[in-house]
Amino acid sequence: ILKHERLIQKDLESLDVIGFIACHLYCRLFGDTCSWCLSPASRPLMYVPVFFRWWTYWFKVELSIPREWVGKEVHLLWESDGEGMAWRDAQPVQGLTKEGEKNSYILTDSLRDAEPHSLIVYVEVACNGLFGAGKSSLIASSDSDKKFTLHKAELVVFSRDVHELLVDFEILVDMAKLLGQGNQRSFQMLYVANQMVNLLDVTDSCTFSVVGESQHTIHAMGHCLIDSAWLWPYKKSICKCARSWVNVVRMMEKNPEFTFVCSQAQQFEWVRNWYPGLYTQIEDYVEMVRSEQPFCIFWLPDTFGYSAQLPQLMHGCGIRWFLTQKLSWSLVNTFPHSTIFWEGIDGSQVLTHFPPGNSYDLKGQVEEVNKGRVNHSATLFGFGVGRGGRTQKMLDRLKRMSDTDGLPRSGVQMSTPDRFFSVLEKEKTQLFIWIELFLEPHNGTYTTQAQIKKGSRECDRILHDAEVLSSFVLTQKNTFQHPSIKLKHLWRLLLLNQFHDVLLGSCIQLVVEDAMRYYAEICSMGGLLIKDAIRSLFGELLPTGPETEESLLVLNTLPWERTEVISRTGAKTLGAIVLPI
């Protein structure tokens, strides 16, 4: 290895899944196997959507675990096209999406005699890809000729020791690559990795030297960004949330130290309405880590830009901390810092952090966390857009990094947003103040769907007027029933349509149709609420006869005087309108 360090490193980096199969390491990841009961002639199984527009199939999987597997870890191995989720006892238990490294469901960590050895699992499979169902591009019509395949459905014994060895190997190779040729630690990593490949004895344990003296700390938080709508309609996002969050619950069951961050309240509402059993489990974990301090963080991983007025809006709402990611995507000018004070138009400042991993969709690899720009930085790890969030493999990588020579001594620790920003507050005297945050990749992002922006503005005005008038009536008549529940529902529909890929039209046609349907509902119901408020407030002044259509009531719902021209239909002759003062 002294003579051929570059060659050894190149060979180790090229040892992908295919390479490991050749040397029988990945093959040993699963031990004993019970294949599915379909005849060999029907494998792989093709399933075609009857009506292609987002069709869903359900598979009933009857399992019988052999008695000789007692004491072993047993998985249901499932590989199919599309997005899947396993159900057991009428509850979602595991997202199954092969693109997100999530293709198995753990039936038991260690099979016991007393456990049922025969059970039924249902697998729900959606006939669409992670990024929609377009024929040749992301935003395109559905592919009516598309076929989906169930590649594998097997009952297997999972070899945990092989899994641990594979994670160790990946960390060693990643570190050797990152530290560079000639580095002493890089040489040690290459040597150990080379020995692992040569020996290929999965029963051997791998040890590391004493950790280094760096004081940098990585605050790791599980994360799963799911666009509420983009290349799929709203209803598919509901399923994506369930598939991803049920995986989060399973991870927390096995890893008590694991923390997960989700900032999209609408998605919690979806899960509560459609998957109440799962939502109850989420509530239990939220209650365990609930902070007594008020949550004062603006969490915005994905956006199309940064308005200069945001700092003063945050400051006015009592928000002191801001986390975002997209600025690291700049095409020309790399942003020089990961933590700054962002100053707004009026001088308001918020403590701002950009996770140095350059993505909100990280995999927990060495190159994503070894960023020594400040003493503390965050890493958001987990597959997004419905690929199941974080995986056990990601968490195992981060555990290795927390006690690995060549990486920060304080290492990688599971953290929470408030804990992380509280630590950053202690370093704020060292930070730069930045005024303009310019996002290069989305420069000049307008819209291709003007009707959506028009609908958003019109519905905003309608709901504003309905709320102002209803509140004014309530101050005059205490018998008036304020429509707060209806207004909350309509406001939430409007805000849902303000999701960045919806409002700007960077979405498929199905989403546009959903948005316009919501706008129509807001206009209809909002208009009725305005009429009810006016009738309650000025009922005695409004005519009730045939002349009603000729009457005119002028109201100003804004807090300043207005002078405007009012147009109305009528006879083509001059006339005068007298407005009483």
From TrEMBL:
Signal peptide: none annotated. Keywords: Glycosidase, Hydrolase. Residues 440-519 form the Glycoside hydrolase family 38 central domain. GO terms for molecular function: alpha-mannosidase activity. It holds the Pfam family Ams1-like_1st. The keyword Hydrolase applies. SMART domains: Alpha-mann_mid. GO terms for biological process: mannose metabolic process; oligosaccharide catabolic process. It comes from the Eukaryota. This is Glycoside hydrolase family 38 central domain-containing protein.
